[in-house]
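Severity: low
Component: inverse-folding endpoint
Summary: output formatting inconsistent between runs
Steps to reproduce: submit the following structure tokens with default settings.
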């Protein structure tokens, strides 16, 4: 069952969820301890992550309807329909009707995902025998398997790092990441591809890494953003051949464009006149589009300048900029941020960003309860953003102190 606008009963489920997330976060902090070099072995981390996923699967409810959309797109492919065209009101079937109901009874939207992910959804539907409940479980199981695989791949990406065990555990056992995976969110598939590309780079497989990185947007368009970090990877890893790797990335991007662009144009055409830009429970909704864009741009510029100086922590500020720029920051978007938050040297920014992935779980509250007055919406948004606000205040104070210090 999906909890949507259940009023007080939905609030009860959210309170249980929030308590579980807070307890899990405290347990994780206690288990890892203050020593950045501590952490369980890779097999132990995978076992604990698998057990945690099982606990999340045992919940009788979820808070997101996305997996119903994935199932409907997969079913459309199996029956010769295009998932990139909005479903007509006259079209019915168990998958379409269930997805339409979960999305408020309106005309079900066309797919905004790449054809590679739609292929995964179609495969899950086929394996499940074209039965809706089995397909929903299959998609969630696929996401869980991809997440467990990403733990192994992330461990490869961090090869040679002194605090690797700590960082892998902090990624694998993030409670919001665990919950998002249990809900079946597809962000884990492009994230696995991006992590796989960087792991291949570690092994010197530059062509394979570049093609894989370029193909990631064919799963989900947002997977093209990590390419921003490529020039800074070259700066820190001289063994990477600029020409070889760039050419491979270009080939992958061209393939993604061939596979994806015409389909996505159909989706956008079907949205024409129906979709509208409406920031909700985000920095944009709190301060307005223009101020939010200015702050996000400033954070991005600070991150790029830091990366240009060879400081890996600059990636954090790019992640913060992206988080502030998202018009509707649902918790599962944190899947992209957690690896960055834990892969850089510990700092106020990394801790704040990591805590922001957890506080982002507050975004579920208005959906599970229903109507939320504007004042309460603003309070919820402030609570979500509090970790990033504390980071920003600390960094501004540190910069002011440094500028005020007398030169010698």
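Observed output (run 2 of 3):
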């Amino acid at each position: 069952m999906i909890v949507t606008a259940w009023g007080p009963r939905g609030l009860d489920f959210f309170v249980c969820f929030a308590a579980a997330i807070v307890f899990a976060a405290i347990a994780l902090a206690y288990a890892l301890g203050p020593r950045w070099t501590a952490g369980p072995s890779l097999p132990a981390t995978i076992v604990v992550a698998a057990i945690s996923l099982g606990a999340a699967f045992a919940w009788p409810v979820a808070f997101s309807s996305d997996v119903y959309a994935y199932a409907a797109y997969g079913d459309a492919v199996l029956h010769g329909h295009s998932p990139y065209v909005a479903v007509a009101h006259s079209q019915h079937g168990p998958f379409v009707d269930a997805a339409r109901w979960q999305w408020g009874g309106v005309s079900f939207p066309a797919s905004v995902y790449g054809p590679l992910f739609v292929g995964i959804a179609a495969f899950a539907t086929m394996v499940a025998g074209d039965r809706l409940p089995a397909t929903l479980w299959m998609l969630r199981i696929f996401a869980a398997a991809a997440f467990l695989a990403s733990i192994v791949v992330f461990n490869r990406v961090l090869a040679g790092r002194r605090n690797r065990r700590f960082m892998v555990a902090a990624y694998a056992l993030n409670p919001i990441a665990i919950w998002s995976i249990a809900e079946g969110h597809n962000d884990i598939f492009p994230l696995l591809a991006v992590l796989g590309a960087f792991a291949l780079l570690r092994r010197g497989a530059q062509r394979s890494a570049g093609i894989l990185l370029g193909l990631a947007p064919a799963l989900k368009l947002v997977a093209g953003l990590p390419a921003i970090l490529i020039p800074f990877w070259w700066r820190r890893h001289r063994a990477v051949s600029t020409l070889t790797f760039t050419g491979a990335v270009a080939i992958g991007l061209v393939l993604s464009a061939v596979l994806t662009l015409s389909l996505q144009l159909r989706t956008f055409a079907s949205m024409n006149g129906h979709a509208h830009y409406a920031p909700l429970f985000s920095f944009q909704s709190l301060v307005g589009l223009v101020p939010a864009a200015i702050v996000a741009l400033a954070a991005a510029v600070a991150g790029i300048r830091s990366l240009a100086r060879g400081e890996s922590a600059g990636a954090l500020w790019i992640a913060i900029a992206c988080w502030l720029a998202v018009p509707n920051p649902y918790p599962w978007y944190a899947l992209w941020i957690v690896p960055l938050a834990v892969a850089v040297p510990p700092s106020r920014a990394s801790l704040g960003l990591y805590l922001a992935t957890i506080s982002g779980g507050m975004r579920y509250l208005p959906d599970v309860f229903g109507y939320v007055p504007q004042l309460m919406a603003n309070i919820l948004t402030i609570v979500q953003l509090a970790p990033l606000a504390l980071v920003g205040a600390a960094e501004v104070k540190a910069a002011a102190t440094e500028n005020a210090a007398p030169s010698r």
